[in-house]
């Protein structure tokens, strides 16, 4: 896939200032409704979960309440499992996979785990089908003590009271063709760096934590998802998106040092899913189902280990 190397905002080699960020923002438009697609679905789940508003984004005239859903039958002797979606708002199946899990599957774990699910961390990006927030900041590189992203700060505040109790955290993402056609060129332009084209993998893969890889955990998820959709192969260099493939469909990143959402706790079991919705071999429903299969497999694996 060939893409132009010049992004239409800014001067090559020069990082954006306020004028360029304003020009970028003017190009963004609402393409779908967070309230209709996400908040309405959460409202339908109020009778089954404790719904907590953990923050609100104020972006100009737009206000976005942030919601998490928790197990009603919370017990201190049960392991805490954290599921996050929509950290990159444009990654649709992360949001809808989390909501589908809550609606159809979470009841299977009642009385066995304490669930916390934040299905749409970045609603501004969800509505505009974008990776960044209003300020051209990537929330998934902003889970740091001095975070520049309100989305990331809000989620960290939500998690803080129980972060030491989280045993498993699965963060639901997608890798899309638009990563190469739009988002990576925009990132290079924003930071005043040259754009280096990459290769989008065709299929599902996982990003583990290089400081705590847990290979058996990652492989259990891959095996479950392989029954739903295809797993991304390594490229000619034995890599996926520039990182060494350490097992079929698995690469590792240093999640904490990169400020990734997967590093928001010190959970023993951590992973980030990457669904490929642009594949001709995958439907939107398959993508949602793959996310759900990953969540279920992650929880099942931890329970089989007898984790507390």
From TrEMBL:
One of its GO terms (molecular function) is hydrolase activity, acting on ester bonds. Gene3D superfamilies: Zn peptidases. Keywords: Hydrolase, Metal-binding, Zinc. The active site is at 274 (proton donor/acceptor). This is Peptidase. Belongs to the peptidase M14 family. InterPro entries: AstE_AspA_cat, Peptidase_M14. It comes from Lysobacter arseniciresistens ZS79. The keyword Zinc applies. The keyword Metal-binding applies. Its cofactor is Zn(2+). GO terms for biological process: proteolysis. Residues 30-306 form the Peptidase M14 domain. It comes from the Bacteria. Pfam families: AstE_AspA_cat.
